[in-house]
Structure formats: structure tokens, C-alpha cells
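Homework help board

Subject: predicted structure for assignment chain

Our instructor gave us this sequence and asked us to write out the predicted structure in C-alpha cell form, then describe one feature. I got the C-alpha cells but I'm not sure how to describe them. Can anyone check?
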Amino acid sequence: MKKVHLLLLSLFSGLLLTFSWPAGGFPGLLFIGFIPLLFIEDHIHKHPKDFHLFSPLFYSYPAFLIWNGLTTWWVWNSTPVGGVAAIVVNAFLMSLVVSLFHISKRAVFAPGKGHFILVFYWITFELLHLNWELNWPWLNLGNGFSNYVKWIQWYEFTGAFGGTLWVLVVNILLYHLIRISLSGKMQVRTAAVFGSGAFIMLAGPLLFSYIQYHTYQEEENPVNVVVVQPNVDPYHEQFILPPAEVVERNLGLAEELVDEQTELIVSPESAIQEEIWEGQLHYSGTLRLLKKYVTEHPGLGIIIGASTRKEYLSGEGVSPTARKFVDANRYYDRYNTAFYIDTAEITQWTHKSKLTPGVERMPYPQYFKFLEDYAIDLGGTIGSLGTDIQRKVFTRSGDSLKFAAAICYESVFGQFFSGFVRNGAMLMFVVTNDGWWGDTPGHRQHLSFSRLRAIECRRSIGRSANTGISCFINQRGDVSMATKYWVTAVIRKDINANDKITFYTRYGDFIARISLFIAGIMVLYTIAAALMHRKKLKK
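My C-alpha cell output:
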């Protein structure tokens, strides 16, 4: 096989992965998307004299560059520098995983063996991308099934990492089947093992999921919810219009559908752009306006996004993201916040804690404070924001109904999202502002990922997107009453609350934790094998 053939295989892999991805792709292609890369790696492994140790990195990079570029190019619309960085760097990190897989496989196994290592290294990479401060889990493989919810009802047990495991195992089994078929050798028994294994791994989860989908029944526990899509242009209106005018636009829309049965109104992220100090909520004109509205509508509560600030008192510990007042030796934090307001005296709120890298948070601010000057300005709060340690849940005044709001990017993180449910949330809401990306696959992909969260936690979701797509999602992940992009709209529906805890909600990303442990052992084993090989060469 010539080197140009390796490059063509890499390009083919990139296209397979691209055309598998939401919003318009077919996820069945994920099951063959890594096969060309496995052939590349195996060829390099068999011909070590023709390639250097890191050749798999260079030959896999085109595949991942194509995949990242053609599926997440829309990030460019909000931040050209950030968009290019996300595509180039993420493709490099993916290639680095393949390279590490090759190094371990080469050190420990003969050619054609040891492919299972890729499973643990790749899942560990995805786990890293969920938890470090340069997180970008958008292309985690398990997300690829987000618009095919009938295939993945078992995510309530495994979470999206189950999908990643599914994809990689089937790719490896099919690769071995194809390799044996192309070898020209009569290995009927071996081919039958890999063929039957691939069939079982493909068909088994699908059959189980279809049965689950058609037999799952939500318990009747309806809550009447109105979701508002105010369609305020984030580039030219949202941060320029008077805050009261934006809030009144939200309430005016809600008023079209609100009646005595309505229990919750949900408005999007950053709907309130007044400077609200958390220790002085009574001074906020927009909060008083909302308080007046719920007083006039007994039994009604409002979830709404805002930007808030908190001043640190004398002697109070200051966070790494704190900012210093210009004219005083005091500090404060800024937050992306969701309020819950009803007739109770105490207003409840939660802070966005999975922040968008480069926009809402610069990496590791305790070490790189100087990078704050380079934060990307999207018109609102600039620089690193503060976060909450706990996933805060709202409680409705007068009864036991509990619910929570995930703010924008938080809906991409499975275990994080399930933390709200573990803390008692019986309903979930996603408040977001997807207009930064324009009418691109970005906002549609973001919506589809909420469908995964509904299945993982078996929670009904109401989604309020300022300029994206607002909708309701049931506990099987089905979308209903989806609004059109960039259209002012309001929708209303009874959605069922649920207090049962799924296996995934209870145990989180256990597949990833197991993979991390095994990957760690494999890295140590690889180092030990390399040292032993070097010792033999010296002798």
C-alpha cells in the first residue's frame, strides 16, 4: 500500500464520520467510520522501517480535520479565531489518541492484534473533554445518535459513553472481518466469529432499544408549561435594548397562552441584561416587574436567564475568577444565571457552571489570569465567570415539585446534567441563546443533544432558545412543538414530572471511569515494555 493510499483512506474516514453526524447525517456510518484508520494503523505497524513512531498521527489528522471542520465550522460565525482553534486543536488531539494507541499496540502486541486498546484510550479522551477547562465534547461519538432516539433508549443505563463504546467495538469487529476477507486465506471459523460478533453487537442494542421505546410509559404527573422564544437578536438588540423592554417582550409573548392552569413560564438565557447584584435583588427593576407579574397570576412561577454579580465581603474567600473593583480594594464575580421567581419571598437562582471556553472562561484562571484580556466578546459579559459547586434545584412555593434549569452549554454534559436530577429535579429545562451561530447545523445539533439527556435521566424537558429552536422533549427523547429558527414564538404543553432515578443518573459515567483505569494500566504497561525492549537492545 502506497503512502498516497493511506492519505486517501484517511480522507475517506473523515467523510464517513462527517456524513454520520447530526443534524442531517446518518449515524449508521459511525460503525464503519474508523475502519479506514484501523487499516492505516495496521499497515504502519507491519512496516515499521518505512514509518516513524508518530506516523499514525500525521495520517489520521486529515480524517479528523475534515470531520471537525465540516461538522463544527459554524463556530466561526461567533468567533473566527475560536472556530479555527477548536477545529485544528481538536483534530490534533484526536490524532494524538490514535498515535498513542499505535505506540501501545506496537510495544505490546503483534500486527493485527491489540485493537481493543483504542476503545479505552478514546473513551478516556472523551472523558477528558468533558472535564478539563478546554472542554469541547461536541464530537464525542455517543452524541452522534442524538436524532435517532429509537436506537439508544439504553442510554438510561450507560449514558452517551455507551454509544461511544458501541461504535468503537463494532468498527473493530467489522475491520477484522474485512481484513480476513481481503487476506485470501480460508479462515472461515475466525471470520464467522467476527461476523457474528459484529451482528450481535449491532442488532442486540437496536432490538433492545426498540422494545424499550415502544413499551416505555410516562407516569401521568402533568405540569402546564409555557415556553417563550422572544427572538431578540444577540448581535444587534439584546445588549442594547433597555432591560425592562426585553423582559416585557417575554411576558407579552407568554401572556398569549397563560391562563389559570399555567404553572411555569420559561424564558431563555440572558433574557435579563440589567446589572443585578445578588445581595441586593430588591433594587432590580426587572425582578420587581417579574415579581409583580407572578403576584397577579397566583400559582405561576417564572424561570428566566440573567447576568448577575456578587461582591465578596471583607474576610470572605475570593475565587480565581474574581475581578477587582476599579476604585476600591474589593472583589466581585460575574455569573451567567437562571432565576426562579414565584410568590415566595426568597428568589431562587443557579449559576452556569459548564462555561464556554474562550468566551465565558479562560482556561485555568488561577494560573493564567493575564489571558482575561483575550476573552472573546460576544456582546455580554466578557472574561471568566464564576460557577456553582452544587447543581442547584428550584422548589415551587407551596408544594414538593422540584425542577432545574441547565444553561446553554450545560446541556451537552451528561453526568453534569444528571446531577440536577440526583439533587431532586423532577422536570428539566434548558435555557439557551443559539443565535450566535446563525442558521447553521450548530443550533440544531445543540437541540438534538438535549434529547440524549431526556433519555439518560428519563426527564421531560422544556427548551427555551432565544433565537434557536424552542420545544418540548418527552422522556423517550421525542421532540414536540418545535419552533422555527429566528421566529418569535410561544408554545404551551403539559409535561410529566418524574421522580424515578435511572441507573445512569445514579452511577454516571462509569464506562468512562473504567476506561480511564484500564487506559492508565496500558500506558504503564507500554512504558514498561518499551524499557524492557531498550534493555534487550543494549545487551
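Reply (TA_rk): Your C-alpha cells look well-formed. For the description, you could write something like this. The first helix runs from residue 3 to 18. That's the kind of observation they're looking for.
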